[in-house]
Each structure stands twice: as structure tokens, then as C-alpha cells.
Target: Dipeptide ABC transporter ATP-binding protein
Amino acid sequence: TEALLQVKNLKKYFPIKKGILQQTVGHVKAVDNVSFTVNKGETIGIVGESGCGKSTTGKTILRLLEPTDGEIIYKNENLASLSASKLKEYRKEMQIVFQDPFSSLNPRYRIGRILERPMEIHNLYTKKERKQKVAEILQKCGMDPSAVNKFPHEFSGGQRQRIGIARALTLNPNLLILDEPVSALDVSIQSQIINLLEDLQDEMDLTYLFISHDLSVVRHISDRILVMYLGQMFEMSETMALFKEPLHPYTRALLSAIPVHNPTEKRERIVLKGDLPSPSNPPGGCVFHTRCPSAMDICKQVKPDWKQAKDGHFVACHLY
Ligand code: SF4
Ligand code: MG
Model:
């Protein structure tokens, strides 16, 4: 296995400003010391509730948000410290697909123009070649090439997401960051889009970072899964191992909420007490201790280290 992307100790803090003078009184640690490696051709799922930092992690990797600290190593370059002009070269290779393609597809432009635009910006191909490329990619994404003459509002949510994916593919990327790509879609359409993503991955040698609040959505497509909570990494392992034997109490609670079809997999529903703490004022020690059914005295005082509990299965919890 060959590493495509290495995220090392990534941090993204947002200042909290107060009063008329807008003085910085603290920070929201939206991404707090996140490290993982994405191998070529792999799909990593990043899962957690809203506000856990998963989207911010994705956007910071692409430097759509500036990292506060840490490294983003891609092809032996640290993207975190690249100049804007050098970054542009790498931008082509990493694209993002958003949850709501409607808000990211300009309603006043026809699909053809929307899809040709990224190639224009990067000075790729002749006009004729760009049109050809668009037709090809639309077809790969299960759309009729005649879509180029229509406007975004003329398509259903699922079709718009196919167009959003097509746009991300026009630059021949290596890595796609899929930020809740199916969360706005009906369940039946969700599986169509996930199947499409899997086909495209094989056909175009793509590597995915698949961000979702829904463990059952990432289960099918991910090779490995990272569970996040309040900006921190709680658990990471191969998908099968995570579902078979979740280690972190938070992961167990998330898993227990998924309806199971297989009766031998029956789990007891774990309902977490309390609400998600405010990210601007997270609990000390283990940030999960206020809601954890297994919390011990040490959990209030000491933040657990990230450790390997089993082969390839990592967790941050004092139980291990
Ligand atoms: Fe629960 Fe303690 Fe583990 Fe945190 S460290 S998840 S509070 S048992
Ligand atoms: Mg795969």
C-alpha cells in the first residue's frame, strides 16, 4: 500500500470574539490534533455528529480553510505551507463534492458551462476538447450528455449530485473529498450515488475521503473509518473490525442507533445522556466524559492518549 495523503497533527482553531471591540476571548478547536494516512485507492470514512470537525477537516486538507497547525503531506509536499500559486497545481488533484449540489451549481449557468469552467480556470485543453471531456464524464456519471444545455433547476436532487460529481472529475483528480454527498437525498437515491462512486473509484483510480454523520452510509463504501467527536479522533480501524467490535463507548453508542437487519448482530440501544457540549467550552480530561456510560474518575482529569488497542485498531479511551 502506498500513502497518497498523510495528515499529521492537523489543527484548525476558530477565534471566539466578544464585545464591541471583538476581542478574542478563546478558541473553538474545530479540528484538534488529527492525524491519519490515506492510502492510494482507499476510502476513508470520517464519521461524527455535526460539529465534530469532520467537514472542517476535509476543507482544511484542501486549504479551503487555512490550517492553524499541522502538516498535510501529499506527494512529498506539505500542502499546509505551500504558496497559493504552487497550491493551484495540487488543487486539480484534490476535489470536493458538497452535500447540496444545488447551492454549489450556479443556477444562472447551463450545465455545460458549469462543467467546463474548472478546466478553463486551469488552462486545460482546447474548447472543443473541454466539451468532449464534459460529455464523456457526464456519461460516466450516468447522465445524458444533452444535460449540458439545461440549467441546474431542471434536474432532480440525485441528478444534481451526479452533475456535482462530474464537475469534480473534470480535472482528473486523485483524491475526492465527499462531504455528506448523499445526506440530502432519499434512501433509494443514496444507494445509487454510492454505487456510482464505487464504480468511478475503480474506473478512475480514485481515493476517497467520505464524510458523513451516518455510520450506516459509510459502512458500505469505506475501507477504514475514523470516528470524531468535538474535533478529536476517538477511534479508527478497518470497517469490518469497527462494526464487529467497536471499542470506544461513543462508537458503540453510534452503532447501537443503527437498525440491524441481521438478527445475530442484535445490539442493545445505548442512549447517551446529556447534549453535545459546546465546542467553545469542551469538558476537560476526556471530552466525552460528560456523556460516557463507562466514565471513571480518571476520565475527568486526564485526556486519554491515542493508542493501538489491536492490530490496526486505534482508540483514545482509558478503558484500553
Ligand atoms: Fe468514557 Fe473515560 Fe473512555 Fe472517555 S476515556 S470514553 S470518559 S471511559
Ligand atoms: Mg472501495
